[in-house]
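---------- Forwarded message ----------

FYI, see the Transcriptional regulator MraZ record below. Original note from H. follows.
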Amino acid sequence: MFQGETAITIDDKGRLAIPTAYRDLVARACANRLVVTYNPYEAGCLWLYPEAAWEKVRDQVNALPNAKRVHRNLQLKLVGAATVVEPDGSGRVLLPASHRNAAGIEKKAVLLGMGGKFELWSEQAHLAQIRQTIGEDEISEDMLDLRL
């Protein structure tokens, strides 16, 4: 289970170092194989899944009938863009340039542990998300029972 927020620096080659606290967990969860893909819902963010968790997501997305444009769009952004990455001996993974460019991720980024996956945000997009508050009119029925 991944959780927490870590400021990350992307090196000149486009690599990010997996935080030390997560390295053993990543090794156990997926034998050091992560899948990088786009976040189809929010700009400025990539998703990194352990490979086994990704395969379940991939299969669910591919099972959607592709006669609907929204399904094809989801398949394009998630499955079509998915790339397997493996940490090197120093715990760094190479993020594809196309993914970094599309998400606007440059030198500074934020890695969030979101339970079953990581989210990698550009620093600017993350700040914009964090600065937004949830308005009373946005609270869903599902949120009403939360005791935060």
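H. also flagged this: The first helix runs from residue 20 to 30.
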